[in-house]
Design goal:
Layout: H1 8-25, H2 39-50, H3 63-80, E1 96-101, E2 106-107, E3 111-123, E4 126-129, E5 133-139, E6 151-155, E7 160-161, H4 173-179, E8 182-188, E9 193-199, H5 203-221, H6 226-237, H7 245-253, H8 264-278, H9 285-305, H10 310-328, H11 334-348, H12 356-376, H13 384-411, E10 413-415, H14 418-442, H15 448-471, E11 477-479, H16 485-504, H17 507-533, E12 535-539, E13 547-552, E14 555-560, H18 562-566, H19 568-581, E15 586-591, E16 603-606, E17 609-612, E18 615-619, E19 636-639, H20 647-653, E20 658-661, H21 667-676, E21 681-684, H22 685-688, E22 691-694
Parallel strand pairs: 5-8, 14-15, 18-19, 19-20, 20-21
Antiparallel strand pairs: 1-3, 1-6, 2-3, 3-4, 3-5, 6-9, 7-8, 10-11, 12-13, 12-22, 13-14, 16-17, 17-18
Length: 695
């Protein structure tokens, strides 16, 4: 029997996904006219009536249907791309604008981060209704801290396009926001906004946010603080704002990061518990209907408790559709239900396909459905406790096996002890989830609430300790992995080939897998050979910082200021992606104040000079005492604010050099330098982004 005949919705979904991805990642695609949708029925008519296809060519009749869903995917993306709407505020000339806060504001160190919708703009002395989201950074003060979801503000600030990443392979925040239909941002100081005393909040969302805040206060009021509070808030309610980078890094390194994001795992746990408890209602028709309704109410009540975050309502929708499908038909194919749920969610928001959480959630579910039972049946365990441990292990292996290529692509690391850590973390996090919900129920009961809160605090401390122990084990994580989208696809093709051979025992599948692996290895070898030959100088764009890379093969010397070198977050965000992509595994970090200590086969320092291969570079990060000491003629001069008084003299001394302003030279100051010295070849990393010079 052809497997595709049992999962027709999967075929339609694949064609639909192809259309979505094409339209999302190829922005130059012309706007699809509705007349294009006449092509599929005409093609179907041609295949069915004109060509009397024999049995072997019967599959051609399905091509027009797949073509329809492919075109529909393209059109749906175009219809949801808000920047193209006629009433989008970007199409207007704005004096003032009204913005509605669409999510609870998030506190940053000096600002409030607000996602808002521009509902009206004043253009030429009249107010015009508009649409479109905007990212706002609002000065943190007493009045701004009182703002909440649904509030409407009158603003007067300069709106700018979201900046593109300025360093090689840095996280593309501009694209990330564009997928959420946010294309512009603004900073608003305390004098450029006023609260209109109006609030237009959605009642359901407002209730959800208020309830979530109330439950967070219950946790904090019971003396659960620090990392324990942050982990508990994230695990139980999906509130991740208080998680430190250290905690996130620890959970990621042990393969347990998924427990900190309320999503498919947590909703799945709630679904399993509800299903188990409701089975005692019996098998009569009234009991089945009651079980069905109560399961749906329970799922969405939990989603409401967690603030209806995208990952939660996505998971709740998926399990709701599974519940509905199983209620109407016990024999309904699970893959059809999963495909149907994905189709419905993407109909609501096609850009959801770009979310890492969406991709990982569905892949994990697919992996568990396909592989869990097959892995479980490999070993028969008679002891109930060991059997339960084996079952959890099979779930973890199945989910990890299907999601690890995507994890390598996005996170560039692989947790070696994921299987062992999840054996403890998943049951422990499940107990904490139940314990948190129970605490909410008994919080107002004297003694019992306090006693249970202490127990929950101990469990949270234990969870954190277990994760740290696994993180500190030798070889806990393989990091620095860099694979392309093509590499990721090839790995999945390889896994599919191995799986098909395991199930169908046909030699063709293993040959297919071998060819895929050889192709993957060839790409990796070619890439490594290119990396071994690379020689380049990179001056990074980091505001108020000096940062330069000297790269030779898979080695590099990174020269930066001491403040930057101590900032692990900036190092990880701005530089690590480039190091991973270039295959650099021998990085030497040097404070520019100690640059004289540099002695390698490809780089050496002498005074303010850096000799890199055949290039002479003058580094002005350190103050130059006497210009008479500058005896060499540099090709490149890196300008730093520490020697700003010497710039004019340096221009006269080395008129043929390329002058590059580092991150300490503001864009405003750079423009003044250009204006006063028009004959000098000058560039700025803050203006054009990181500058790479290949040797």
């Amino acid at each position: 029997m052809n497997i595709w005949n049992t999962i027709p919705f999967v075929r339609l979904l694949l064609a639909f996904l192809a259309g979505l991805l094409l339209a999302i990642y190829f922005e130059a695609l012309p706007n699809l006219h509705w007349l294009f949708f006449l092509i599929p029925p005409l093609a179907y008519s041609f295949f069915y009536y004109r060509l009397q296809l024999n049995y072997r060519l019967r599959y051609l009749k399905g091509i027009p249907i797949l073509l329809f869903f492919f075109l529909f995917g393209i059109k749906l993306v175009q219809l949801h791309t808000e920047i193209n709407f006629e009433d989008h505020y970007a199409q207007k000339v704005i004096d003032y604008y009204l913005v509605k806060i669409t999510e609870p504001p998030k506190k940053k160190s000096n600002t409030l981060k607000i996602i808002g919708e521009v509902i009206e703009v004043r253009q030429q002395q009249q107010w015009i209704k508009t649409s479109g989201k905007i990212l706002i950074y609002l000065a943190k003060e007493k009045s701004s801290l009182q703002l909440k979801y649904g509030d409407i503000l009158l603003c007067n600030s300069k709106i700018e396009a979201t900046p593109a990443p300025k360093n090689p392979f840095e996280f593309n925040y501009k694209k990330y926001l564009a997928f959420q239909q946010i294309y512009y941002q603004t900073y608003i100081d305390s004098k450029s906004w006023v609260f209109t005393n109006h609030n237009k909040a959605n009642v359901i969302l407002e209730t959800s946010y208020s309830l979530s805040n109330y439950l967070l206060q219950i946790i904090s009021s019971h003396d659960i603080k620090g990392d324990e509070y942050a982990i508990g808030a994230a695990l139980i309610l999906g509130y991740e704002d208080d998680l430190s980078n250290e905690v996130i890094g620890s959970f990621a390194a042990t393969g347990a990061l998924h427990v900190l994001s309320v999503s498919g795992l947590h909703v799945g746990i709630v679904y399993i518990v509800l299903t188990y408890l409701l089975q005692y209602l019996g098998d009569k028709k009234a009991a089945k209907i009651s079980r069905f309704i109560l399961a749906l109410i329970g799922l969405w009540l939990y989603a409401l408790l967690t603030g209806l975050s995208p990952s939660v309502w996505r998971a709740a929708a998926m399990f709701s559709l599974i519940t509905i499908g199983k209620f109407y038909s016990k024999d309904l194919n699970t893959f059809n239900i999963i495909a149907c749920s994905a189709f419905i969610l993407l109909m609501i928001n096609p850009f959801m396909i770009t979310e890492v959480g969406f991709q990982l959630s569905y892949l994990a579910v697919i992996g568990i459905v396909i592989l869990h039972q097959k892995f479980y049946e490999l070993i028969t365990v008679r002891n109930k406790i060991l059997d339960h441990i084996w079952s959890i292990s099979c779930v973890s292996i199945a989910a990890q096996l299907v999601t690890f290529p995507l994890g390598l692509f996005y996170f560039h690391q692989f947790p070696n002890y994921f299987l062992f850590s999840n054996l403890i973390v998943i049951p422990l996090s499940t107990i904490i989830l139940y314990g948190g919900i129970f605490l909410f129920a008994v919080a107002k009961v004297p003694l019992i609430g306090a006693m249970f809160a202490k127990l929950l605090n101990i469990l949270l401390w234990l969870l954190k300790s277990v994760v740290i122990i696994f993180e500190n084990l030798p070889f806990a994580v393989i990091d620095g992995i860099s694979i392309s989208a093509i590499d990721t696809i090839i790995i999945y093709i390889l896994l599919i080939g191995i799986y098909c051979f395991w199930i169908y025992r046909k030699l063709a599948y293993i040959n297919f897998a071998i060819v895929s692996s050889l192709f993957f290895c060839t790409l990796q070898i070619v890439e490594k050979m290119q990396q071994l030959k690379q020689q380049q100088l990179v001056i990074y764009s980091i505001n108020k910082h000096f940062a330069v890379d000297f790269i030779e093969g898979n080695n590099n010397v990174f020269l930066g200021d001491h403040i930057l070198l101590k900032d692990k977050d900036k190092m990880r965000f701005h530089f690590l992606p480039n190091w991973n992509n270039l295959g650099l595994n021998h990085t030497k970090k040097v404070d520019y104040a100690d640059s004289l200590a540099i002695k390698t086969t490809y780089l050496r320092a002498s005074g303010s000079y850096l000799f890199y291969q055949n290039k002479i570079i003058l580094n002005t990060a350190q103050e130059i005492a006497k210009l008479q000491h500058l005896i060499y003629k540099p090709e490149i001069v890196i300008l730093n604010h520490n020697n700003s008084k010497r710039f004019k003299q340096l221009f006269k001394l080395f008129p043929e050099a390329v002058f590059i302003c580092d991150g300490t030279i503001s864009s405003y100051y750079y423009r003044n330098l250009i204006h006063k010295n028009p004959n000098i070849n000058m560039r700025s990393v803050l203006t054009e982004g990181a500058i790479t010079i290949k040797v």
